[in-house]
Every structure is written in structure tokens, then in C-alpha cells.
Automatic annotation (TrEMBL):
Protein name: Cytochrome c oxidase subunit 2
Organism: Microspingus lateralis (Buff-throated warbling-finch)
Cofactor remark from the record: Binds a copper A center.
Taxonomic lineage of the native organism: Eukaryota, Metazoa, Chordata, Craniata, Vertebrata
Domain Cytochrome oxidase subunit II transmembrane region profile: 1-90
Catalytic activity: 4 Fe(II)-[cytochrome c] + O2 + 8 H(+)(in) = 4 Fe(III)-[cytochrome c] + 2 H2O + 4 H(+)(out)
Bilayer topology annotation: Multi-pass membrane protein
């Protein structure tokens, strides 16, 4: 999860988030190169001797037409690649349905004998020592590590958004509509998120907690959980 004064992203916990962080760094390098070029030209114009002699206007027009096009291509191609990767869902190992309510989440493991539970934020007065305020819930989403999980997201009342930054997942929950996304947790751990769509007075109090465990632990948990 994020720390105080953190300037960068959270540590990536899925292949998609690693790709997103790589594209972010790539875009920043392109922006840095553009800024350096503009700064150099401004400095040269301010400090250099003014002259009425310029290079051929056709050459200038060709340069300032081709260069921006090349910059856009270097940004568009990696972006499109990641967009297609995020939309691709091939034979998921587990399907999870997340239903947004005011102001809690309901989860359904449709592959596991209709395992269903509600997930509420733990009030500050009841929070165990060492847990995170406004982020911990009474029932976590447990998923197997290194397995493709498809998440079907919808809402029961108003707009919500199911978002877990470290997994690179953010999908709107819309009443009457099913949206889907997927993720693969590449390491065990606990990953925190929150509703990212303003949904009413208690919008800030419906966190999301995803716990990634080895497959054996997941199977033990699913067999002990009430249906």
C-alpha cells in the first residue's frame, strides 16, 4: 500500500501493473526529452544573436510535422498494446463477482458452490492493533496466487468503482450492467483498494482488501468458508 510522502506508484503485484509502470516511465522519458528540447531552443533564442536569415521554410515545416508524429507513435503503440492486454481474458482459473452497495461490497465465488459474503469496513473503534484505519474489512477477498482471476463488477444502487492500484485493476460498477476485468497476483500478500467513484456520503468508507495466498491455502479457506 502507499506510504506517506510517496511520489511513485505502489509496488506492482501483477504483470499488468508492471506493464503500466513501465509505460509510465517511458512516457516520462519522452516528456523529459521534449522539455529539454524546448528549453534549449528558448535559451538559444534568448541568448543568441537575432538574425533575419532562416533555413528553408519547407525544411522547418517537414521537421515540425514529422517529429510530433513520431512522438505520438512512440506513445500510442505501447499504450495500445497494454490496452489489449488488459481486455484479454483467456480461460480464467476463478471467477469473482463484486457487487457495490451503499456502502459495502458483496462478493460471490460462483465457481465454489455459491460462496457469498458481504465485506464491510471495520470501524476505527473495533480495529485490531496494527491494522490500517479506513482500509481494513471484516471479510477479505481471498484469491489463489499465480492464477488468473476474472472479476465481474456491477452495482445494486448507484455508481461505484472497484479499484486495487497494486494489481492494476479499476473497473466501474454500474447498476444493471456487468463489467469485467481480470488480474493475476504474482506474489502472496494483502493488497488494498477503495471505491474510486463518488457514491454518496460514505464513499470514503467502502475499502477493498484482496489477499493472495498459495493455492493449497486457498482451497483450505474455501472448504471451511460457509456457503
Amino acid at each position: 500500500m502507499a506510504n506517506h510522502s510517496q511520489l511513485n506508484f505502489q509496488d506492482a503485484s501483477s504483470p499488468i501493473m508492471e506493464e503500466l509502470m513501465g509505460f509510465h516511465d517511458h512516457a516520462l522519458m519522452v516528456a523529459l526529452a521534449i522539455c529539454c528540447l524546448v528549453l534549449y531552443l528558448l535559451t538559444h533564442m534568448i541568448t543568441g544573436k537575432l538574425s533575419s536569415n532562416t533555413v528553408n521554410a519547407q525544411v522547418i515545416e517537414i521537421v515540425w510535422t514529422i517529429l510530433p508524429a513520431m512522438v505520438l507513435i512512440t506513445l500510442a503503440l505501447p499504450s495500445l498494446r497494454i490496452l489489449y492486454m488488459m481486455d484479454e481474458i483467456n480461460e480464467p482459473d476463478l471467477t469473482l463477482k463484486a457487487i457495490g452497495h451503499q456502502w459495502y461490497w458483496t462478493y460471490e465465488y460462483t465457481d465454489l458452490k455459491e460462496l457469498t459474503f458481504d465485506s464491510y469496513m471495520i470501524p476505527t473503534a473495533d480495529l485490531p492493533l496494527g491494522h490500517f484505519r479506513l482500509l481494513e474489512v471484516d471479510h477479505r477477498v481471498i484469491v489463489p496466487m499465480s492464477s488468473t482471476v476474472r472479476v465481474i463488477v456491477t452495482a445494486d444502487d448507484v455508481l461505484h468503482s472497484w479499484a486495487v492500484p497494486s494489481l492494476g485493476v479499476k473497473t466501474d460498477a454500474i447498476p444493471g450492467r456487468l463489467n469485467q476485468t481480470s488480474f493475476l497476483a504474482s506474489r502472496p500478500g494483502v493488497f488494498y483498494g477503495q471505491c474510486s467513484e463518488i457514491c454518496g456520503a460514505n464513499h470514503s468508507f467502502m475499502p477493498i482488501v484482496v489477499e493472495s495466498t498459495p493455492l493449497a491455502n486457498f482451497e483450505s479457506w474455501s472448504s471451511l468458508s460457509p456457503s
